[in-house]
Amino acid sequence: MTAAPAPGGRVLPTLNEDGSRNWIRPKPAEGRWWRRRQVVAYALMVLFFAIPHIRINGLPAILLNVPRREFTLFGTTFLPTDTMLLMLLLASIVIAIFLFSALFGRVWCGWACPQTVYLEFLYRPIERLFEGGRSGSLNLDRKGSHFHPRRLLKYTVYLALSLFLAHTFLAYFVGVEALAQWVRLSPREHPVPFLVMAVTTAMIFTDFTWFREQTCLIACPYGRWQSVLLDKQSLVVAYDYGRGEPRGRGKARTDASGDCIDCGACVITCPTGIDIRNGLQMECVHCTQCMDACDHIMDQVGTPRGLIRYATQDALAGKPKRLLRPRVVLYPLALALFVGAFVTALNTRAAADVTILRGAGEPFRLEADGRVANQVRVRIANRSRAEHTYAITILGAESGQIIAPENPLTIAPGELRSTSVFVLLPRDAFTAGRRDITVRVTSGGFAESFPFNLLGPADTLPTVVP
Length: 466
Ligand code: SF4
Ligand code: SF4
Description:
Blueprint: H1 32-50, E1 55-56, E2 59-60, E3 62-65, E4 70-73, E5 76-78, H2 83-104, H3 107-112, H4 114-131, H5 149-174, H6 176-184, H7 191-211, H8 214-219, H9 221-229, E6 235-239, H10 241-244, H11 265-268, H12 289-301, E7 308-312, H13 313-316, H14 326-348, E8 352-358, E9 365-366, E10 372-382, E11 388-395, E12 401-403, E13 409-411, E14 416-425, E15 434-443, E16 446-455
Antiparallel strand pairs: 1-2, 3-4, 4-5, 6-7, 8-10, 9-10, 10-14, 11-13, 11-15, 12-14, 15-16
Bound molecules: iron/sulfur cluster (2 copies).
One iron/sulfur cluster is lined by residues 237, 269-272, 274, 276, 284-290.
């Protein structure tokens, strides 16, 4: 049997060359950027916990009802028939992300992504509290270390936190009222919601306890897009190679040495385990930790701060700033187009959304008396904030009979209902198997007409089916 090829060096900072996990225990560097990120992170956490409880226009600020395909965003509810509006909204968000990344790099990753915010400002500080910092910490790889009392205590706190986060997260999808019910009922009475809650908690717990920074390195597509989203004029966390090199430490330093004293402080503080001095890397989440660590070292050795700083790759190469680049011009244009279309569509959408469909199954039926019966299905979504009664009128079928079991139709605000109208016409009312009619739906100030064709036999000869 051929032996497996020897490993060709580390492929991921979280993997050792033998394939085992390289546990990253970053040493926090508490400088000015860290303090700013702390303020942003805790403000975002409060916002995340508060949003499900905030109501706008009597509706939850955000409620993503996936089973009903209804999405409420800041006082506006999008119904399943609002596909175009949702598409415009999603396209606007994607273009905004593209523009934001082109200008400010991965600011989202380092400052606002829930993965970074909760890992760096909640889970890791708790870990340091129970297990000590980088040097005094328990060895994560040591056999049996998971059962150390301090670690078990940490897991217990992690589990409680994960439960809380899972409940808050699910409140965005089911609403706080339904969630309160879930919590009060016994799991036996509602096994499915209990299972959803248990799985969400388990996923959050596993992510922040075990998977951690690998989410950014392996699972998140946003990091992988960076090579196409950024250009050399985008703001990134960067090491000033020209100023820092040639690096040297202690006695090895000479008059020709750069400002980097090769202390490694920027590496041991990095939450993804990389060395920023190797250049811009996909693994860098632009968290600014290395900026703080290096600034601290620069203060100690008496050289100016900013050896690692926010800069563009062109600026570091001594090239001039270019405000007008193709992507910085095209993205805002596309964004204005999509946002404009979204706002226009939102403001001009009718108070009700009506869909006319043919009845399921056979296209028409021949009655014993020779008449042709068509089933017309009318689906109405009431978009307004009040209950409305909708009257359905069929125009162009006066010679026949209309049977409508539910007409008019009363619909609660935000609800969607369907009803059927049966149109019976003599056989000779059809020409070449078709009869054009108009379905009119009215309610107060709302009135809309829809052309529709009924189907019948291709010939128009009066024949009675036995
Ligand atoms: S912290 Fe600054 S001085 Fe120290 S190794 Fe990193 S870049 Fe060099
Ligand atoms: S290289 Fe610096 S900015 Fe990038 S992830 Fe590591 S510490 Fe954060």
